[in-house]
């Protein structure tokens, strides 16, 4: 028998937490807090597996990254298999100031990495956790206008890029998107907001 209930969305409001399989407890703390600077905020047993611990870290936005630990899981540094349905990587937001220090700070620990990678709208650097899971440090090349989010800038930059037939979003699209959002969201007393040359 068919259900006549209309289809409705389950509206999300952000990522609550991400849980990853980690190595042993101390290796996990040393990586997530000792390398990535995430405060270790609490722990308890894995409520679905009493052989495992469950560590909770604050990635910097008050949400949670949690790690299942097991004292029998030692660091392997082998790349996690890339298979359909698997998580490819975890991207963590860092400031431009931190981003440009990342290669030197990873090198000091002997952690292999990709080096800075140009992504047009952001800069990225890639390396793996102690179990071979790919981590990305991502740093936006822009700040959104007051009252707007990064996503607001990205959708406008995408529309501009597509209209121009460009391959990917780059700095010019971002600058034009920010200008458009400011015009749309902030008032002015000027009769015209057109570009001008006062020189």
UniProtKB/TrEMBL annotation:
Keywords for this protein: Dioxygenase, Oxidoreductase
Organism superkingdom: Bacteria
Keyword Oxidoreductase: yes
Any one Gene Ontology molecular-function term assigned to this protein's record: dioxygenase activity
Annotated ranges, domain VOC: 14-140
Listed Pfam families: Glyoxalase
Record flagged with keyword Ribonucleoprotein: no
PANTHER family on file: RING-CLEAVING DIOXYGENASE MHQA-RELATED, RING-CLEAVING DIOXYGENASE MHQE-RELATED
The protein's name: Catechol 2,3-dioxygenase
């Amino acid at each position: 028998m068919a259900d006549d209930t209309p289809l409705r969305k389950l509206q999300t409001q952000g990522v609550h937490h991400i849980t990853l399989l980690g190595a042993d407890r101390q290796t996990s703390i040393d990586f997530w807090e000792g390398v990535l600077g995430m405060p270790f905020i609490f722990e308890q047993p894995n409520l679905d597996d009493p052989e495992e611990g469950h560590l909770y870290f604050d990635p910097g936005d008050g949400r949670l990254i949690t790690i299942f630990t097991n004292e029998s899981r030692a660091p392997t540094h082998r790349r996690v298999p890339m298979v359909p349905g698997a998580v490819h990587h975890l991207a963590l937001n860092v400031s431009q100031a931190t981003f440009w220090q990342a290669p030197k700070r990873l090198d000091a620990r002997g952690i292999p990495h990709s080096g800075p990678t140009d992504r047009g709208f952001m800069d990225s650097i890639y390396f793996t956790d102690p179990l071979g899971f790919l981590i990305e440090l991502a740093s936006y090349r822009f700040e959104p206008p007051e009252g707007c989010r990064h996503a607001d800038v990205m959708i406008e930059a995408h529309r501009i890029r597509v209209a121009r037939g460009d391959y990917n979003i780059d700095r010019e699209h971002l600058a034009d998107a920010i200008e458009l959002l400011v015009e749309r969201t902030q008032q002015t007393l000027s009769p015209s907001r057109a570009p001008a040359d006062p020189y």
